[in-house]
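Researcher: Good morning. I'm working through a list of sequences from a screen, and I'd like to move beyond sequence-only analysis. For each chain I'm collecting a predicted structure so we can compare shapes side by side. This is the next one on the list. No need for commentary yet; just the structure.
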Amino acid sequence: MMVRRFLIVSLLSAMLCTLSVVPALAQVFPSKTVFIVVPYPVGGSTDVIARALAIELGKLWGQSVVVENLSGAGSIIGTNKVVNSPPDGYRLLLTIDPTVVNNRFVYKTLPYDPDKSLMPITMIARGGLFVITSPTFPANNLRELVEVARSTPGRIAYASAGIGTQSNLILETIGKHEGVQFLHVPYKGGVTPDMAAVMSGEVQVTVASPAAAGAMVKAGRLKALAITGSERSSLFPEVPTMAESGFPYAKYVIWFGLFAPGGTSAQIVERINHDVTGIVKRPDFAKKYISAFGLDLVADTPAEFAAAIRANVSVTAEMVKAAGVEPQ
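Model: Good morning. Structure tokens for this chain:
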């Protein structure tokens, strides 16, 4: 009897010790420098948000938080460094949706599993994209753009950053549904060359975020025909949504999210989520780095973020099929 009682007490003690160690891991985190990898060049909206967040996290944690820009190969280079890092929370990834959504449809093989190699921490913000033309282009709304394309088959060109990117999916999906043909002209270097091509008249259309194109739209150097989100932009309330324009099937939302390597403990993920969402929800931070970019604050839980990614993949799969995208 005494031996049995001793074994029970010992077992309970061991269980309590184990339970107490796990929260302790989150309590001592971080105890050294944390790195946030941005798989895109310096200066873009992803980079700006990451650097602002790093400053605030550094103050909160009492540790250095360093942003690493590792761009290239459609965000694969930077992402691959994170997924191959120890799952301890000391190297994180701040990226946009193509990393875990579009890339699975664009590349035959990826060096990471979009569903398993990364642990969602929080979707920081999301927003729609503008369909833009030059001010001299005759169409003043999306329906008129489609009719111009219908009357001049294959002559209305759109710029994109390549197969499977936002411009490609949105314009080809519209073309498929409406029975019109656009001319796809891919450019290297992201959205900046695309917008420059529209302004110079090399192409007639492209897609860009309010953060990237907003200043030129306000200055009258570009014209926004519609926004792909479910709601109008608070910064550009005059620009109708795709649904309002008669194209509900072409809805597309870009989001900014924070990830840890797959296998990171739930306690560390929850700790980072708690601290990051606390920062981005602050009115001063949200106004300067979320609303100013034409984005909507999200700051959700890891489980909610994971569910949003699954839904995003389902919608994107339909657009990929409509656009006829084949993995390369």
